[in-house]
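In response to the reviewer comment on reproducibility (Comment 2.3), we provide here a single inverse folding case reported in full, input and output, so that an independent group could reproduce the run without further information from us. The structure tokens appear first.
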């Protein structure tokens, strides 16, 4: 009943709905409506009650749950969501429940105590400071094809931020940067056999409104929040809504085998292509230039001898020779 009442209030976009109408819609007494609304208010939802008008929901920017209540009925990504005030890691939680949850389920938390980054690194995930979520995806794809889901998530986040006026770029394979600062990291974890994919967990962490002191000193030169580096007011709910919309769009392309559009966006908005890069692989350092991305999401680099080589996401660590990207 909680979700149904929230969904109804959210659908009014700040307008009132009477207790009598809510009673009729849900088939419960007006007293029962009042009790449910009172319980929601105690959970932190800002619900105004006015005599002869009814109830209306004021969007609480610290309650990202309201964004999911406004998603289109046909949307796959986020149609089922699990909102947690605090969790060790949304990726860890998503893996625990993945087998039972439907395709497109989103696990989202207001705070992570042990957020996971790439190559076993930690991801700082302070309360009320960012967007910390994991997707549970069960696409019609092989394990090899599913590798492209990291690029898909990068395209969706980048596109969503661009739509809001941020000058975002994709740093291959799994970061979103603005200028030379990282604002988002993506971590995909696959479960299955080469020809039988069980599920993919795609973790997305977006730094939204941290201050410099919210980051550890070793990250001050490389990481930032959207609010720190862009002349825009960072609104978590607005950002989340745009990104969920783009994730659903690109996931539809992926399932329809129309991945060319995904990779075209990644090439056009790449922070890595045409840059000198250093590839660290098996303790060996290779210097070269990033020249292209394949349709399967691999990076093509050209070494000093003019030889081209294909680098698959997850095999290497790539850093620009001059600065982060």
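Designed residues, in position order:
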């Amino acid at each position: 009943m909680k979700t149904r009442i929230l969904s109804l209030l959210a659908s009014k976009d700040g307008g009132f709905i009477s207790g009598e109408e809510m009673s009729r819609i849900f088939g419960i007494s007006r007293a029962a409506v009042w009790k449910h609304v009172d319980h929601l208010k105690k959970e932190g939802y800002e619900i105004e009650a006015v005599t002869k008008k009814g109830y209306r929901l004021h969007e609480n920017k610290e309650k990202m749950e309201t964004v999911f209540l406004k998603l289109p009925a046909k949307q796959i990504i986020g149609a089922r969501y699990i909102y947690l005030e605090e969790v060790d890691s949304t990726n860890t939680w998503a893996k625990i429940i993945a087998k039972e949850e439907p395709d497109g389920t989103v696990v989202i938390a207001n705070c992570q105590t042990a957020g996971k980054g790439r190559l076993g690194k930690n991801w700082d995930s302070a309360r009320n400071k960012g967007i910390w979520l994991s997707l549970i995806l069960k696409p019609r794809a092989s394990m090899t094809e599913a590798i492209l889901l990291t690029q898909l998530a990068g395209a969706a986040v980048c596109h969503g931020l661009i739509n809001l006026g941020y000058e975002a770029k994709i740093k291959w394979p799994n970061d979103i940067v603005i200028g030379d600062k990282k604002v988002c990291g993506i971590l995909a974890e696959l479960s299955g056999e080469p020809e039988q994919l069980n599920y993919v967990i795609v973790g997305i962490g977006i730094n939204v409104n941290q201050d410099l002191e919210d980051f550890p000193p070793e990250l001050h030169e490389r990481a930032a929040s959207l609010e720190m580096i862009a002349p825009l007011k960072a609104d978590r709910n607005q950002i989340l809504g745009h990104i969920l919309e783009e994730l659903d769009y690109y996931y539809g392309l992926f399932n329809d085998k129309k991945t060319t559009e995904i990779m075209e966006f990644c090439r056009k908005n790449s922070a890595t292509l045409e840059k000198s890069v250093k590839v660290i692989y098996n303790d060996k350092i290779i210097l070269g230039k990033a020249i292209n991305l394949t349709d399967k999401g691999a990076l093509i680099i050209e070494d000093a001898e003019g030889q081209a080589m294909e680098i698959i996401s997850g095999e290497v660590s790539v850093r620009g020779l001059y600065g982060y990207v």
